[in-house]
Write a structure and sequence with these properties.
alpha/beta, 230 residues, 53% helix, Rossmann fold
Length: 230
């Protein structure tokens, strides 16, 4: 599947809506770099960029988004950019977004960052350019080993990350875990049963952005609460 940069280079323009599946932080960082260096849109101090993260994007969030996108940009030449990251998007919310994507406002562009393209309804997916983020084999391999291991093995896998105080590696592990768990939940139609796990991963990700909390405590908490998927 083509990357966002490849599609933009080929077409020379932005589509009105994209869905990008992959680890939230990795996708977002790549997206912001693409917008700034390829398209010339910066996120810093930009009143026309709406960047929101949700555990669950529901009907209320969809209605609020619909209201925001109907407003004019700050200048006549500005593009409005919506970056919506969500672990779960309810079917009601997806149906509410259909109208926006059927009749997009001029110079308004949406980027949905989600764990798995298959979570989208076909009717919504048909109105989007879908892109799969290219995750490295190392990230997924570590997450798979972590999920398959018992508590002692998980602690052993975390040893180097904790000793090196490597927050980036910790964030990549959380991204990989979220991606694999979401795929598992979707296949087994048990998304509600995974809600607590997704919520805890989101909380740990937020804690990692702060310098204060202990990296060791955060990662060991994840090791203890995740069930084994051996």
């Amino acid at each position: 599947m083509e990357s966002l940069a490849d599609i933009y280079t080929r077409t020379g323009s932005l589509h009105h809506a994209y869905a990008i599946a992959g680890p939230r932080d990795a996708v977002k960082n790549s997206l912001l770099l693409f917008l700034e260096h390829k398209v010339g849109i910066t996120s810093r101090g930009n009143p026309d960029m709406f960047d929101e993260t949700y555990n669950t994007f529901g009907i209320d969030e969809a209605r609020a988004t619909r209201g925001h996108q109907s407003k004019n940009a700050s200048t006549n030449t500005a593009k409005k950019i919506f970056i919506l990251s969500a672990t779960i998007i309810t079917h009601e919310a997806q149906n509410a977004l259909l109208k926006i994507f059927e009749e997009p406002t001029r110079d308004t562009h949406f980027f949905l960052i989600i764990p798995d393209i298959e979570m989208l309804l076909p009717t919504l997916c048909s109105r989007l350019v879908t892109i799969a983020y290219d995750k490295t084999r190392a990230e997924i391999s570590l997450a798979k080993d972590f999920l398959a291991g018992d508590t002692p093995k998980r602690f052993k896998l975390l040893k180097d990350i904790i000793e090196d105080k490597n927050r980036m590696a910790a964030m990549e592990l959380l991204d990989g875990l979220e991606t694999l768990l979401h795929s598992s939940a979707h296949r087994t139609n048990s998304m509600a049963e995974y809600a607590f796990i997704f919520s805890e991963i989101a909380k740990c990700r937020e804690h990692l952005r702060s310098r204060a909390p202990s990296l060791k405590l955060i990662l060991e908490h994840i090791a203890l609460i995740l069930p084994s998927f051996a």
